[in-house]
């Protein structure tokens, strides 16, 4: 069993496909497949099940993944400890970001961090907020920009970047175009255009509907706020999006507030609670750069 095989095992599990894993590891896809096949022969177990959505770990795969992550983490910590003794920051830091989220100051911090620590392999990946939070817990991601509704999962620390209410957008020709606000129940009773599950706005909207005993009629799920607004302006439904004054709905759209109840969603930086004290040196350094007032 080789370190490279364990790295490929984790890459396939994290990305969900052999092709994406190959891109992440900067190798050809057949190399990933061959190494996983060799590993499967060595352990005598199927490690992944191929599905229409990609590759999902089997029970044996999940068990081996737990050990693989621990081995790779220990190896990384050993290398980083040696580099730290030499006064050079090295290692790998992975930052996750919710699809379509505005990076804002985070992009500037990442740029400065890369220039200051060229020995650190800095990776940024997009994903759904729920998946990114799971990856933080598993140690696959060191820092993430996620959408939240309610409290963060146990063991995760957050710092709010943006706290906004959830609103609606309709076409200028829609019967609601002259309104300023609608209730959550009224919005849920119309065809809904909203973001994919796992995003902050969608999570907040779905949770609020459940609390009110509502079953929204979701007709379109898209990856960006802009796409949701475009579909709403075309008359295909009511877009449920952040109630952000900076959003441009254009002359063909009308923005409405959603009330009774007001639904709030947060955009937040998140990290494992023990990163400050037990995290890898490179991850601690990035967190200190992002949160200089909170992190030593």
TrEMBL record:
Q: Which UniProt keywords apply?
A: DNA-binding, Transcription, Transcription regulation
Q: What is this protein called?
A: LysR family transcriptional regulator
User: PANTHER family, per this entry?
Assistant: HTH-TYPE TRANSCRIPTIONAL REGULATOR YBHD
Q: Name one Pfam family in it.
A: LysR_substrate
A GO cellular component entry from the record: cytosol
The organism that produces this protein has a lineage beginning with:
Bacteria, Bacillati, Actinomycetota, Actinomycetes, Nakamurellales
Q: Which InterPro entries match?
A: HTH-type_LysR_regulators, LysR_HTH_N, LysR_subst-bd, WH-like_DNA-bd_sf, WH_DNA-bd_sf
Please report which protein family the annotation says this sequence is part of. Belongs to the LysR transcriptional regulatory family.
Query: Which positions fall inside the HTH lysR-type domain?
Result: 1-58
Alphabetized GO MF terms: DNA binding; DNA-binding transcription factor activity
């Amino acid at each position: 069993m080789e370190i490279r095989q364990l790295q490929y095992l984790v890459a396939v599990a994290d990305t969900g496909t052999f092709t994406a894993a190959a891109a992440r590891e900067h190798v050809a896809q057949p190399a990933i497949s061959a190494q996983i096949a060799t590993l499967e022969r060595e352990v005598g177990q199927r490690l992944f099940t191929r599905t229409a959505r990609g590759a999902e770990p089997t029970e044996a795969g999940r068990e081996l993944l737990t050990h693989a992550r621990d081995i790779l983490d220990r190896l990384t910590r050993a290398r980083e400890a040696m580099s730290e003794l030499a006064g050079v920051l090295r290692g790998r830091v992975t930052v996750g970001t919710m699809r379509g989220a505005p990076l804002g100051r985070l992009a500037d911090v990442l740029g400065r961090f890369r220039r200051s620590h060229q020995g650190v392999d800095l990776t940024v990946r997009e994903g759904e907020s729920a998946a990114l939070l799971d990856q933080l817990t598993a140690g696959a991601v060191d820092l993430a920009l996620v959408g939240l509704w309610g409290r963060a999962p146990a063991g995760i620390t957050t710092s709010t970047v943006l706290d906004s209410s959830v609103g609606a957008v309709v076409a200028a020709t829609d019967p609601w175009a002259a309104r300023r606000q609608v209730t959550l129940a009224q919005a849920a009773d119309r065809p809904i255009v909203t973001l994919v599950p796992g995003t902050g706005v969608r999570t907040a909207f779905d949770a609020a509907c459940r609390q009110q005993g509502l079953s929204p009629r979701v007709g379109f799920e898209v990856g960006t706020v802009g796409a949701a607004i475009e579909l709403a302006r075309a008359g295909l439904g009511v877009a449920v999006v952040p109630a952000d004054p900076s959003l441009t709905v254009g002359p063909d759209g009308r923005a409405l507030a959603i009330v009774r109840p007001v639904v709030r969603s947060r955009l937040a930086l998140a990290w494992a609670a023990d990163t400050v004290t037990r995290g890898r040196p490179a991850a601690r350094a990035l967190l200190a750069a992002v949160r200089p007032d909170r992190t030593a």
